[in-house]
Amino acid sequence: MLYFLRGFNRQKDFLLSEIEPQTAFTIVVPFRNEAKNLPTLLRSFSNLKYPKALFEIILVNDMSEDDSIGVINEFLNSKSGKNLKNIIQINDRIISTKSPKKDAITTAIHLAKYDWILTTDADCAVPPYWLDTFDQYIQTNDCVSVSGPVKFTGLSSFLTRFQILDALSLQAVTLSSFGLQKPMLCNGANFAYKLSAFKEVNGFEGNTNSASGDDMFLLEKFKTSFPKQSHFLKSDKAIVTTLVENSIGDLMDQRKRWVSKMGASKNGLSKLSGVIVTLMNVLLIALIPLVLFNIIPASSAGMIVLIKCSVDLLLVFKSARFFEQEGALLSFVFASLLYPFFNLYVVIASLFGTFRWKDRTFSS
Question: Where is the secretion signal located (predicted)?
C-alpha cells in the first residue's frame, strides 16, 4: 500500500485549458436489459459540451429481454434526443465467443467512423466536459490508450458505503499503478483507445474465453505493444459515475466476476498484489483463534490490525478526496473489520463457483 501511495502522489491532476477541439470519438455502449438505466446515460450524452460533429455514439443491444430499445426510441423522439442526431443502434448481432460484451464492442468497432474509441456502460452517466477533457489530454500527450476515473454512487446505507470504499481502493490502486508507470487495472466504463492500436494488437483475440476483462486484458496488450503510451486521465471533469449494486447477492456476483479475470491476467504486479492482499486478509481472520487460544497476545494482534488499517486509510483517503466521497470514510472501521471475510469468500467462490451477470450465468 505504501508503494501504491507513492504512485498516487506521482499522478498529477490534469486541468482543462482553452484548446480548440480536434479529436473525433466513437463512443461505444454495449447494453443488455438496461431500460431503467439508459435514460440517465442518454440525458448525460445530450448534455455533452463537445462539438457534435466530432463524435458519434454506437449503442449495441446485447439481446435485451426488456424494453431497452423502446426506451432508446422514446429518447430519440424527445426534445433532447432530436438535438443528438449522431446515435447509431445495433439491434442484431452474432455472439461468437464466451464473452458477449467483447463481441458487442467488436461489432461496434467494425462500424466506427473515427480513430478514437471511447467505451462506457449503460448504467453510467458522463460529465458535460467528458470529451473535452479526453481531447485535450490526447492532444497534449503521446498515448494510444487513456483510462479514466469511475465513481460509484448510491442511496445512503452501509452497503453503499462499503462498496464505495472498496471502489475507492480499486480506483486508488488503478491510478497509482499508472503513476508508477506499471499500469495494471482500468475500467471499461471510462476507457479510450485508438482504433488503429486495437487492430494492431488483434483486439480481444486470446481473451474471449473470459466473460469479463474487455478493459484489463486490452490494457495489457497495449502496455506490451506500446510501452509508455498507456495513460491515466486524473481529472474531475472526466469522472464517469455509476451505481453500486442493490443487494449483497448482486455485489457478490459482481466481485466474483472481477476476481475471475485476474486468473487470466499476465500482469505480474497485479497477481502479486492480489496474492498479498488475500494473504493479509487470511492473516487477519487467523488472528481471532490465535488470540483466543493465547498463541499470540491481543496487543500484538491489535498492532497488526492498526498498522494495516492505517496504511489502507492513507491511500483510501487520497482517493476519497479526489472523488469527493470523504463521507464514506465514516464506515471505514466497520468495513475494514468485515472486509477480510468478504474478500476471502469472493476469492474462494470465484475459483469454484459461478456468477450471474446481465441475467446470464457464467463459470468462474
Answer: none
Q: What is the pTM of this model?
A: 0.91
Encode pLDDT of 62-82 as tens digits: 888 899 999 998 998 888 787
Are 44 and 126 in contact by the 8 Å Cβ rule? The answer is: yes
Give the integer Cα–Cα distance in Å for 291 and 167.
31
Domain extents for the chain?
Answer: 2-245, 268-363
Query: Which residues, 6 or more positions from 230, have their beta carbon under 8 angstroms from its beta carbon?
Result: 143, 144, 145, 146, 147, 178, 183, 219, 222, 223
Distance CA 311, CA 51 (A): 44
CATH class of 2-245: alpha beta
Rg for the chain, CA atoms, rounded: 21
Q: Look up residue 104 and give its amino acid.
A: A
Give the pLDDT confidence score for residue 96 in this predicted structure: 46
191 membership: H or E segment, kind and range: strand 191-194
